[in-house]
Amino acid sequence: MPDGLPSTLGLVGVGTIGSSLIRGLLAPGGSLSTLPRVVLSPRGAAKAAELARDFPSHVVVAKSNQEVVDAADCVIIAVLFKQVEEVMKGIAFREGQKVVTLVAGLLPKRLQELSSPASDCVSAIPLPAVARRAGSTLLTPPRPWAQAMFGICGKCVSVESEAEFRRLLCITTLMGDFYKRQLTAQRWLSSNGVAEADAATWVGATFATFAADSSAAEADTFSKLVEEQTPGGLNEMVWKAQEADASYESLAYSLDAVFHRLVAGAEDPSLAPAAKRLKR
Fold it and tell me: Fewer CB atoms near the end CB (10 Å): N or C, the chain?
């Protein structure tokens, strides 16, 4: 396996993100000459059964979480945050195992405490498009075996600092906002006589084009792209109107609120954009 990529992976919690990662690793046409063996927990039975059906030569479903851990060189934890402490305290890990958490809010220090005596622990946040090897993954700390695993499935951004990881993690919460903007645009088109299917196709393709222009962004990429919008043109008109309406300021407030919740473990209503505007 390249760069020490584990030969046997165990997945505890077979939800959307965990199953997407496994699909990205095992789908035909990848860069791996030898595919890993994958052992799935019975949690998320429907998705586990689909993976076993689609990759019968490489995937098996275990009878328990402990059976997954016993069989794996690398254990991937992908349960809900509210379940993770209870689930992990019910599992016995072993020395030398690698452990990955895909649980937002569970960082390597606490992960290592929960999985002792295993000590090679990383936190990762892969986005669903890893299933098509077109996703991005945030990783801390950088480990060659983990970078190899997530690099197969798209772009892997690795950072040493847990503080930086928390800040970067906030950006993944813009996924719903991104889709809501697309839905708003589709509904605007449909309400003005455009067929829903045509509206969806055009909105999806247009947003994908926007993203393609900044997918390999450098420090000044976004500011340059904004500056490139024709002065006095329609594109500039829209972003300036959104700015005047405090849309981007509201976005920053939302990110502040997300970060607070990640750190404090609870939401603070006073940080909501509407509440912040009232204080101005």
Answer: C
Q: Give the Cα separation of 66 and 68 in Å (integer).
A: 5
Tell whether 211 and 187 lie within a shared domain.
yes
Query: Hey, CA dihedral for 109, 6, 173, 65, is it positive or negative?
Result: negative
Q: Which of 109, 129, 160 is the last residue of a domain?
A: 160
Distance CA 22, CA 49 (A): 13
Note whether residue 165 is domain-resident. no
pLDDT per position in the chain (280 positions), as tens? 555 789 999 999 999 999 999 999 999 887 777 889 999 999 888 999 999 999 999 999 999 999 999 999 999 999 999 999 999 999 999 999 999 999 988 999 999 999 999 989 999 999 999 999 999 999 999 999 999 999 999 999 999 999 999 999 999 999 999 999 999 999 999 999 999 999 999 999 999 999 999 999 999 999 999 999 999 999 999 999 999 999 999 999 999 999 999 888 889 999 888 877 777 6
Alpha helix (H) residue ranges in the chain: 16-26, 45-54, 65-71, 81-89, 108-115, 144-151, 162-172, 175-191, 196-213, 221-227, 234-244, 247-264, 273-279
Domain end marker among 110, 134, 160: 160
List the domain range (segments joined by +) for residue 122: 2-160
The answer to whether 70 and 99 have CB atoms below 8 angstroms apart is no
Which residue carries 């927990």 as its tokens?
Answer: 41
